[in-house]
Batch of 2 targets.
Target 1
Amino acid sequence: MNIMALDPGRDKCGLAVLNDQGEILWRQVIETKALEEFAIARAREHDPVCLIMGNGTTSKEAEGRLKKVLPGMTLKVVDEYRTTEEAKKLYWQVNPPKGWRRFLPVTMQVPPEPVDDLVAVILARREIDKGPV
């Protein structure tokens, strides 16, 4: 049973697909204007049972757009509280600092790329941790 998750944003979105164990099957930061295209492609490829979406920036607009292109999919809007901070920590777990940067605490470092896709991962994992989605 797979789950798609979205961190909606004005210019870019984080989109991820996880299995029901919380393992990442696919994740990417995408342009918001390409949201429908990527959501449809991931739905066809991974057949998710639902879409978990953060309640932040432009969530109402994204929800409307996705309901049009994925009419049969259950869509659940969830709280995004502190997900960006969690995503930054997760980024450094996935991409440990190298060279002299490994001596600096990761809390003092800024990831060199957007972490919106990892925010989507965190949103999905939060729902998985609550029990059956």
Target 2
Amino acid sequence: MARKELATASDRLESAAANTGNDDAGERLGELASQLEGLSTADRGPDHGRLARIQSALNDLQSGDGGDVAETIDEADDAINEYRSDLEGV
């Protein structure tokens, strides 16, 4: 089952990784993009906790090393929030 919002978030983070001027931030953004890509097609979707940890990492990157691509990170975060809005639980 494809989860469109998570795939969109992954695409945004790949773009951010490619466009950031910071190698460390680019590597971390790429790792997060890969995680979201895997979650978008996994047999079972992620829970709120897993997504919250990813969003926390995005927040840290956005306010630090990834500041030059903050808008793109915001777009990825918005896509994750959209997915979470339909997720049962917390």
